[in-house]
Amino acid sequence: MDFPNHGDAGASADAGGRRASLNAGDAGHSRHAAAPGGKHRGTDVPENFARGFISLGELALNGVQVSARATDLSTGRVLFSVDDHVAMPTASVGKVLLLIEVAARLNDAEFGLATMLERSVADAVGDSGVWQHLQVARLGVADLAALVGATSDNLATNVLIRAVGLHAVRARTEQLGLSRTALLDLVRDRRGPDDAPQLSVGSAKELTWLFTALARGEIVDAETSARVIGWLSLNTDLSLVASAFGLDPLAHRESDHGLLMVNKTGTTAGVRSEVGILRGPRAGVTYAVSMLFDDGQLMTRLAVLDGMRAVGADLLEYVH
Questions:
Q1: Range list of β-strands (E), 51-124
Q2: Where is the composition biased (Low complexity) (predicted)?
Q3: What is d(CA 140, CA 14) in angstroms, rounded to the nearest whole number?
């Protein structure tokens, strides 16, 4: 039940079975079936999601801006939502849109798996990722995408954006029908007045639709979707919602106690965001949770993390 190998030209064939294990139900649901409704559904919460919903409500009362949504992976039924139509800062979550564009281009003769890209001084950026600490200056496209999926590598992100063009990522995003979700800029150590104020934005409603469609092989085509899922399955950040799932952060590509998960997180000052898919013995869910808060006090940040974990605990109870 492991995920498809990233960068493998035969990944799409392997991924068919893996996607079936991620997606518990009918792969023929339309976008509208996967993302029904747009209104606030805070008064329509199944009992087994009450714990997380109460935690989010308490955070909102204390000044945290909250947006969240969870849908059943098989039926598309909305399990709970809180302001899921609002476009929120999502930090590195927007890198998923870059990975989609990269994956879609891998069949091009001039942009294949083995195409080597070299980092430059202009690409340099700190924080997340390991490439900045390695001696090798050139890596293949698929290797760079794997670094983005595994460690949200900022340097690899900037090199890939330079290679495909931010305009192409935006065009692909619009082509997918996303209007409240976007990768806005390169990764920067500091954002000036002429830069985009955030790396990315997204609505929980659109993000849950996007990940559901990826799991069903519906983003661009089955092979593209499988590659993106494969890269995301390497993610080592299980510190937010996924902290409740009990999985090994460094090795969770195979089923563990009947659980299979892919996710992407976004973290910066005052922002915590996660979107993912959790598949268990009883059901599967797609979820997205984003929070915007005053990060001046450690206790506020810890309360946000506790709230995200509470949502994760409810998701785990639903699928396991």
A1: 65-72, 78-82, 88-89, 116-118
A2: 7-21
A3: 22
* Cα-based torsion angle of the residue sequence 253, 131, 182, 226 in order, rounded to the nearest 10 degrees: -30
Question: Quick one: tokens of 226?
Answer: 């499988």
What are the residues facing 88 on neighbouring strands? 202
pLDDT tens, the chain, 320 aa long: 344 444 443 333 333 333 334 543 333 333 333 333 333 344 344 557 888 889 999 999 999 999 999 999 999 999 999 999 999 999 999 999 999 999 999 988 778 777 899 999 998 888 888 999 999 999 999 999 999 999 999 999 999 999 999 999 999 999 999 999 999 999 998 888 888 899 999 999 999 999 999 999 999 999 999 999 999 999 999 999 999 999 999 999 999 999 999 999 999 999 999 999 999 999 999 999 999 999 999 999 999 999 999 999 999 999 99
Strand partners, 68: 82, 289
All structural domains of the chain = 11-319 (3.40.710.10)
What strand order describes the sheet that includes 200-202? Answer: 88-89, 200-202, 182-183
* Among the listed residues 161, 153, 204, 170, the one whose alpha carbon sits nearest the alpha carbon of residue 37: 204
- How far is Cα 312 from Cα 316, in angstroms, rounded to an integer? 6
Amino acid at 295: D
244 Cβ partners below 8 Å, 6+ apart? 309, 310, 311, 312, 313, 315, 316
* Residue 259: strand, helix, or coil: strand
HSE-up of 237 (CA within 13 Å, CB side)? 24
Tokens coding 113 = 């798996």
pTM higher than the cut 0.70: yes
